[in-house]
Amino acid sequence: MEHNLLNVSTEGHRASVAVIGLGYIGLPTAAVLASAGANVIGVDINQETVDVINAGRVPFVEPDMATTVAGVVSQGNLRATTETPHAEIYIVAVPTPFTEDKSPDLSYIATAGIQIAPLLKGTELIILESTAPPGATEFLAETILAARPDLTTEPDTSHTVYFAHCPERVLPGRIMIEMRTNDRIIGTLNGNAGERARDLYQLFCTGEFLMTDARTAELSKLTENAYRDVNIAFANELSMIADSLGINVWELITLANHHPRVNILQPGPGVGGHCIAVDPWFIVATAPKQSLLIKTAREVNDSKPEFIVNKLLPQARRIDKVKIAALGLAFKPNIDDLRESSARQIVNHLADELPSASIMVVEPNVEELPAELAKRTNVVLMDRDMAIDAADIVILLVDHNEFVHLEPALLTQKIVHDTRGVWARD
Ligand code: SAJ
Fold first, then answer.
1. In the chain, where are the structural domains located?
2. Which residue out of 102, 121, 205, 221 is catalytically annotated?
3. Domain 224-418 adopts which CATH fold?
4. Pick the CATH number of 16-207 from 3.40.50.720, 2.60.120.200, 3.40.47.10, 3.40.1380.10
5. Is ligand 1 within 6 A of the CB of residue 331?
6. Which of these is catalytic: 205, 275, 295, 304?
7. Mutate to test the pocket of ligand 1, among 271, 339, 422 (most ligand atoms within 8 A of CB)
8. Which atom of ligand 1 is nearest to the CA of 265?
9. Which of 135, 198, 394, 421 is most exposed, with minimal Cβ within 10 Å?
10. Cα distances (angstroms) measured from residue 15 to each of 9, 105, 124, 306, 420
11. Could you give the CA distance from residue 196 to residue 89 in angstroms, rounded to a whole number?
12. Sheet of strand 415-418: strand arrangement
């Protein structure tokens, strides 16, 4: 039976949904909604992104997304545009970066609001999906109402616009699965916005729907990522303690994790990605006096790339024209996402410190180096075996499958730094 949301418009057509921002969350959301039968218009400022999608292709790698996008575009259920259209439901999935001083930058949310405002007729539902500090949904509503004083958030009038916050919690690499199966938190700002949002997500999501207010929904999303950041910081701090004592941290954690109530995460070269390395700062910015542990955890994780570089430099400086194979550039295994990547930071730092070195980057998930590395004369992108063969020092930065299942003989007579504990567990 077709869900009634697909028929809610007064003309008897399927409800139109505009997804603003076709990035790592907006595009899969638009695709999954369209594959559930909704009439979806994706909006992005980047003409190239729009063209690629309209051609049925994808602008970034995410398992299983390409086939879904190709299908919904060819069926006409998803089309992309740079012009914000009128829609009955808007999903705002724009970036929320932080500024130099680590405070949240809500300018993309403001711009989305300013573009939507003139199109509204009343009764539309606007869902903020972007991860944002408590109060951001109110900020979006205020931005729109400031531009359209004839509209209101008072429920049940023909001029009411409805607002909800529905944070996404999908894991990059598993987005197409988790989008359909994860539980979803839905925060209502006014009226029945939450119920309407739930009806929409129920088109494709089989998870449980957890209803709350917008501010609690905003803070829950940040809490989840801060929780993970604090736990990774514990592992990273342990790795630095163990190093100072000459103890193998991987063995240490394996032993401690045999305790029935201990479950320590894995240390690494730092915390990357655009979520865990960013979101806890939104809590710190909102309640600075109360978030001492969360702030310290961020600092511990942010200090880890430099710790790794400082371990490697003295060895590298002892070798004339040293050759370093740097395995991995993504922020985590088996994806091509280089955002806030610690591996990338480490390679840049090494390249700064070792001008006469040859740094051979191996990243099987990208075809070219990011611009800041491509322009360096001492960094090249290379095939795995060739790089390792030529290297004096091998540093494992990302546990991509290609590196985990490496022939151990390749590493004999190399100086090896394993930041992920893939080869160094024993
Ligand atoms: N990492 C470690 N050690 C670990 C686990 C992770 O060093 O034991 C590192 C990873 O290598 C990576 C970083 O942490 O650099 C983050 O990776 P992740 O896999 O923990 O998380 P993300 O950033 O890919 O996705 C997170 C998820 N949040 C939680 O698990 C609480 C995901 O569910 C969210 O939807 C996503 O953030 C988001 O968009 O906010």
1. 16-207, 224-418
2. 221
3. Rossmann fold (3.40.50)
4. 3.40.50.720
5. yes
6. 275
7. 271
8. 8
9. 135
10. 5, 31, 10, 51, 47
11. 9
12. 379-381, 358-362, 323-327, 393-396, 415-418
Cβ atoms of 252 and 303 closer than 8 Å:
no
Residue 5 pLDDT grade (very low, low, confident, very high; cuts 50, 70, 90): low
- Weakest-pLDDT range from 1-5, 233-237, 316-320: 1-5
CA of 276 to the centre of ligand 1 (A): 6
Atom of ligand 1 nearest to the CA of 276: 23
Q: State how far the Cα of 209 lies from the Cα of 320, in Å rounded to an integer.
A: 60
Asked if 16-207 and 224-418 have one fold, the answer is yes
Q: What are the tens digits of pLDDT across the range 274-287?
A: 899 999 999 999 99
**pLDDT at residue 3 in the model:** 42
Measured distance CA(102)–CA(278) in Å, rounded: 8
Ligand 1 centroid, distance to 6 Cα (angstroms): 34
Q: Is the CB of 228 under 6 A from ligand 1?
A: yes
| pLDDT of 141 strictly over 80 | yes
Ligand 1 binding pocket includes 28 (Cβ within 6 Å)? no
Residue type, 173: G
**Cα distances (Å, whole numbers) of residue 288 to 247, 252, 301, 345:** 35, 34, 18, 27
Strand partners, 7: none
Identify the band that residue 11 occupies on the pLDDT scale cut at 50, 70 and 90. Answer: very low
pLDDT digits (tens, 9 = 90+) for 86-129: 999 999 999 999 999 999 999 999 999 999 999 999 999 999 99
Residue nearest to atom 28 of ligand 1 (CA): 225
Give the confidence band of 173 by pLDDT, cuts at 50, 70, 90: confident
